[in-house]
Write a structure and sequence with these properties.
Layout (H helix, E strand, L loop, with lengths): L1 H23 L8 H24 L6 E4 L6 E2 L4 H15 L12 H7 L8 H19 L4 H4 L3 H9 L13 H22 L16 E2 L12 E4 L4 H11 L9 E2 L11 H10 L4 E5 L2 H10 L3 E5 L4 H6 L4 E2 L2 H6 L4 H4 L7
Parallel strand pairs: 1-4, 1-6, 4-5, 6-7, 7-8
Antiparallel strand pairs: 2-3
Amino acid sequence: MRLFILVLSMACVALYGWALAGYAGYSFGRGRADYVAWGLSLGTLCALTAIHLWKKWDTAPDMLIFDIDGVLIDTQDSFMPATAEAVRWCWENLLGGVVDCEGYTREYFALCKTYPGFNDDAVVAWTLLRCMKRRVNRTGKASMRETFPTLEEWRKELEGFVDTEDVGGALALDEVRSVLEELYYGEVAYAEYRGQSSRGIGKEGFWTRERPALAKDWKDFGLPVGIYTGRTHGEIALARRVLNWPDFPPERVVSSDDGILKPSAEGLALLCQRSGAKYPLFFGDTASDKEAWLAFGQGLFVAIGPILKAETLRQGAPHYDTLERAREAGVFGLYSSSRECPP
């Protein structure tokens, strides 16, 4: 739209120049009244159209939309190690394997987040276990050290993933998800938010290791705030506790329990619709976040964290190591002084 407005503006200048040339011709006895008439009328039409579109498509941000994990909350000590523990626990206790190596590490985690379809940590753990079980079926070896894929093998697994493939003896996704959730929630929170008694897999819960990335109340940002996340409602409740945002409006959140998953743009569209916004700033840290914004086609994307750093810097897009760095750069202060966040 901005490019179209630029073209209209350039056309306006060219048409007015055409009219001026037609009028100047009278000084040499070769004036062109048709140049003047057409140049002025079409130039004015282009100018008015450009002004109308510029006002309609105001590019001043009118909403802030955040991902939670890796953006609003520092989760480096929660979901990644919980996923690693879920893989090891399932391998030993549900698939009868031998745990003799660490397995899933931060390098594997970072690689997963560059593929839009692997924003869900339960899907990551499930895919790893399927890959390992496939090797057991082929070699008969149950050692985790011998069956766990190398980084390059894992890259190929992500690229060629087929969720309908039948892997004999592999676990169901829901079973892997339940193990990961027990580890993440811990016994008390699992009973409170999932309404079920746990198997005692996780005592304390990995969520207790999380910290807010920015000490700021949602009402103090100066613009309407929305959250687009792959978390469930229970995990969002824990996020509110970590952020100390107990009064954050539920209608400003789109989660996996709503049946909307990244990289779908539907979550961004729904949040904008609910707040009457047209040009949001979306803060994300993974490929699925960026793909959702690209599909949405409005506003700006601000990359947070290391996963998209090289790509965004290469493209000249805004990138900050943390949300606190974005605050220090004045990203929020640009708008908070002139607008008030509605209740």
